[in-house]
UniProtKB/TrEMBL annotation:
Residues 289-402 form the ABC3 transporter permease C-terminal domain. It is a multi-pass membrane protein. This is ABC transporter permease. It comes from Phenylobacterium soli. It is found in: Cell membrane. One of its GO terms (molecular function) is transmembrane transporter activity.
Length: 409
């Protein structure tokens, strides 16, 4: 028998029992669909994490005060307030491969303008903040260095703030009161939308650092204390070196002796992104492994049904051998049947998995990210499952004695 005839016989046996063939493939359908959905959801989560972290700014090193512990009370990271504007100036002057340095103080305020009011976050920054955080001006302008030094009462608003206070009207040139202090609107930021963590990045106000410190945040941040320093490395390759140089410089600035803990902490966005992606990847692999158990269950189902088929078709096998079919022909025929059932289940499962991932993405506002390798991988596993779990029934059929097979009822 040639190979085409074997395929024809195998296909005929599958078509002759459509219900049984469908039930046999059901386990593989469920397994492949689950694997494709899990990997797609994991890839979507990875995209969201990447987008959320990248939205904070590229090539960024974030410097924050370390925790403080007065008595036995640990007040957490950022409570020590050990960073100063002079630290930022030293970083900009002495650390190589730095594109921008932006010290920041922030507070939560109620804005009042033209009969409307809105509660939002105000950031006291320098003009380099735009470069450090990859922000752009949509209309108007950013305040300059002179205005920042003088603490002029000017602000740049995010699109959400502009919409809440003035609707569709142009906010440029309007006046808004921040804790009863009038500020003039000189610019509107370009929209960045929601971050990957669901935060509205457009709901923000930028003002000169000196003005925010003296007129908004109060006594807690007197002097030249700042809450955060953003350091943007000139290139992605320079991030690690910039982070190390910033740490060494601040230890010198703060007179920290060898062996003593830092009173600040630095976070490298590239390492944060890498760690987050690794965590999501591990979670995705775990889910895919659990889903892959369904494929094994499906393979066991194929083996059981194939064993039943061998028993039911014993006389057919004996007759085929009697008219000249070799044992290898019977082996190949039953193996083809098992692989065809598994492959068909894989194709159906792949379709269901892709549609399911898209459905989950739409219902949960989750980015649909079906990995391009998921299709070939799912179909490859389907063929392997059919080949492995169909091997024993096929071998058993091929080992039948033709005479004994013909005697069976």
């Amino acid at each position: 028998m040639n190979f085409v005839e074997l395929i024809r016989f195998a296909g005929g046996a599958i078509v002759a029992n459509p219900l049984r063939s469908g039930l046999t493939s059901l386990g593989v359908v469920i397994g492949v669909a689950a694997v494709v959905m899990m990997t797609s959801i994991g890839a979507g989560a990875q995209q969201r994490v990447t987008s959320a972290i990248s939205g904070l700014g590229s090539n960024l090193v974030i410097v924050q005060p370390n925790f403080q512990r007065p008595g036995q009370v640990n007040q957490g990271a950022g409570a020590a307030l050990t960073l100063k504007e002079s630290d930022a100036a030293a970083i900009a002057k002495q650390v190589d491969d730095v594109a921008a340095v932006a010290p920041v103080v922030r507070g939560q305020v109620q804005l009042v303008g033209d009969g409307a009011n809105w509660n939002t976050s105000i950031q006291g920054v320098t003009p380099d903040y735009l470069t450090a955080r990859d922000l752009k001006i949509a209309s108007g302008r950013m305040f300059d260095d002179r205005e920042a030094r003088q603490g002029r009462k000017v602000i740049v608003v995010g699109p959400t703030v502009a919409r809440q206070l003035w609707g569709d009207a142009d906010p440029l040139g309007r006046r808004v009161r921040v804790r009863n202090v009038p500020f003039d609107v000189i610019g509107v930021l370009e929209s960045k939308g929601q971050s990957g963590f669901g935060q509205d990045q457009d709901d923000v106000v930028l003002a000169p650092l000196a003005a925010v410190r003296s007129r908004v945040v109060g006594r807690r941040l007197r002097g030249d204390v700042v809450q955060t320093i953003y350091v943007k490395a000139a290139t992605e390759d320079a991030i690690d070196q910039v982070q190390e140089d910033v740490s060494n410089l601040l230890r010198d600035q703060h007179h920290i002796r060898p062996g003593e803990d830092d009173d600040f902490q630095t976070q490298n966005m590239a390492s944060i992104l890498q760690a987050s992606q690794a965590a999501v990847s591990t979670f995705t692999t775990l889910l895919a492994a659990v889903a892959a158990v369904s494929l094994i269950v499906g393979g066991v189902g194929i083996m059981n049904i194939m064993l039943v088929a061998v028993t039911e078709r014993t006389r057919e096998i004996g007759l085929r051998m009697a008219v000249g079919a070799k044992r290898s022909d019977v082996l190949i025929q039953f193996s083809l049947e098992a692989m065809t059932l598994s492959l068909a289940g894989g194709l159906i499962g792949l379709t269901i998995g892709v549609l399911g991932a898209i459905g989950v993405a739409k219902l949960g506002s989750w980015p649909a990210a079906v990995p391009p390798w998921s299709g070939p991988l799912a179909l490859g596993f389907s063929i392997i499952v059919g080949l492995v779990f169909g091997a024993y029934p096929s071998w058993r059929a091929a080992r039948l004695d033709p005479i004994e097979a013909l005697r069976r009822e």
